[in-house]
Amino acid sequence: MTSPGEHGTRWTSFAAVATGSRAAASGTARPVPAAVTGVRWPELNWPLVICAYFALQVLLRRFAAGSLTLDEAEMLLWSRHLAWGYGSQPPLYSWLQWLSFQIVPDTLLSLALLKNLLLATIYLAVFRLLRSEYPARIAGPAALTLFLLPQISWESQRDLTHSVLVVTLAAGTTLAFWTCTLAGRRGGWLLFGLLAGLGLLSKVNFALVPFSLLLATASLPDLRSRLHPGGLAIALLAAAAVIAMPTWWAFAHPEIAFSSVAKLNLSDSGGGAILSGMASLAEGIASLLGLPAVIFGVIFALGRRRVDRPLSGLRPEPAAPLARLLLRTIIAGIALVAIGIALGGMTDFRDRWLTPVVYLAAPLAAVSLIGVTGAWGARALVRTIAVLAAVVIVVLTVHFRYGKPGKPSLTGAPVAAIAADLASRHPGAARIVAEPAWLAGNLVLVRPDLPIVSATVPGAPPAAGEEVVALWWNGDRSQRIIETLGQRWNTGIALTPSEPFSAPFPMQPDVALEIGAAVVARGVAP
Predict the structure, then answer these.
(1) 209 and 301: one domain?
(2) Is Cytoplasm set as a keyword in this record (predicted)?
């Protein structure tokens, strides 16, 4: 049994940060109250559990189904070569995927390895970040609560690429900022700038991360003195150097790089647009944090009755410096988004756009939850997450192999049958233009020998007289192909419809994959 004095022991040395000591950013844990023991595992067990789970996810994705998701297909299509830019998303994920393909030739395995390596890195970086302030028995369960965010545990496995990378770099940048930059280590500002630049090459919404971190630091008197103009200049120059060439490419190819601006649903209709955007933002936050809020609430309600000595009567201690920094970073990120909505008239906000700044809310809340509910609360968190992880594995297996009744999964699509029929009908085609990227990427997967391209990046026009075939899926995209090819090849385009392709889904033979087809004529007068 512990005494009230022991319960009053502070978790961190607040003076260490206030006086400029590096101890707050070191890997040394502070003493914790005996009632807040967390889960007593050897420290190495937490990273091992994280790596084991994502290794299992790699095996599941490799063997559960043979076709590609929407984002995987696009990534395969773009990552066949290195370039300063590919499409509407920054190029870093494509570069990493290209490198992965050089090391692991098996396409499905390579795609799964890269994504799950990035996902594991998120958890490991958050664990290391929390470990700099708290012991492993608290940092471990808290880091695992990232699994309670549907965008990370479910959507990232189902079909995301760039959104995974941006959270990985957000976690890495936050870790480096706390343990290196603010700790005054040599090269800390340079590292912060390099990571910020790489983050901007992962997804544009990463810009929220460095700005939020700097605003949060500036708002804390104990940390504000760590912001040096010289260091900020070094970071800015480093970030600018990293993004220079991809930015040049984007402005040289605006029709490709900025083709997804319409997704922002920008409006100039005034107050109505702002209210709609704010409502969309609130909905996005609820979508991200609703599940952890419910689970934390249940554990809090049950756990307060189970701790050896109630903590409610103790004098509250000041929040740890790291906790205050992270909380203000989250608030700053949300505020920046709200300002952007108010100024830009964005009416449709996607929850994944906010993930790079909101993802830390769950681990941060978990630390406080364990402080109230003790070891019982930590064990309850870990057990709940273990059950949810098992459920995700089972549901993902069904999703990849079967889908829903009447709506089979794209990862089980009969693309090989379509490709075989295509090769027999058009054996001499010089170019096969497939839309959307899902169709083009899957055709590349099963028949890398065929000259498959997308209408967005069709390459140089074939010689006169060579056959060009157009294919499309998910609606009539013939007009888009005509317009896009006409722009890329600077010539008039016409399509002569041909017999469509069709093949049943193996797991649901009553449903067929229907592919429209046409022969492309070039040099047609508009």
Answers:
(1) yes
(2) no
Domain housing 441:
413-522
Instruction: Specify whether the CB–CB gap between 504 and 511 falls below 8 A.
Output: yes
Domain finish residue from 370, 401, 432: 401
Helix axes 229-252, 188-200, angle to 10 degrees: 20
Give burial (CB, 10 Å; 0-12/13-18/19+) of 465: exposed
Chain-centroid distance of CA 19 in Å reads 36
- In Å, the largest CA–CA distance within the chain is 89
Among the listed residues 9, 4, 37, the one whose alpha carbon sits nearest the alpha carbon of residue 376: 37
Tokens read off for 299 = 């554990």
| Phi (first) and psi of residue 505, to 5 degrees | -70, 130
Residues near 102 by beta carbon (within 8 Å), at least 6 away in sequence: none
- Asked if residue 273 lies in contact with residue 345, where contact means CB atoms within 8 angstroms, the answer is yes
Same domain flag for 331 and 356: yes
Question: How far apart are the C-alpha atoms of 317 and 326, rounded to whole Å?
Answer: 17
How confident is the prediction along the chain (526 residues), in pLDDT tens digits per residue?
333 333 333 333 333 333 333 344 444 444 444 444 555 667 889 999 999 999 999 999 999 989 999 999 999 999 999 999 998 899 999 999 999 999 999 999 999 999 999 999 999 999 999 999 999 999 999 999 999 999 999 999 999 999 999 999 999 999 999 999 999 999 999 999 999 999 999 999 999 999 999 999 999 999 999 999 999 999 999 999 999 999 999 999 888 888 766 555 555 555 677 787 788 888 889 999 999 999 999 999 988 776 554 434 333 345 689 999 999 999 999 999 998 888 876 666 677 888 999 999 999 999 999 988 888 999 999 999 999 999 999 999 999 999 999 999 999 999 999 999 999 999 989 999 999 999 999 999 999 999 999 988 898 888 888 899 999 999 888 899 999 999 889 888 899 999 999 999 999 999 999 999 999 988 765 5
Shared-domain flag, residues 484 and 339: no
- Name which of 349, 347, 339 is nearest 281 in CA terms: 349
Rg (the chain; Cα; Å): 26
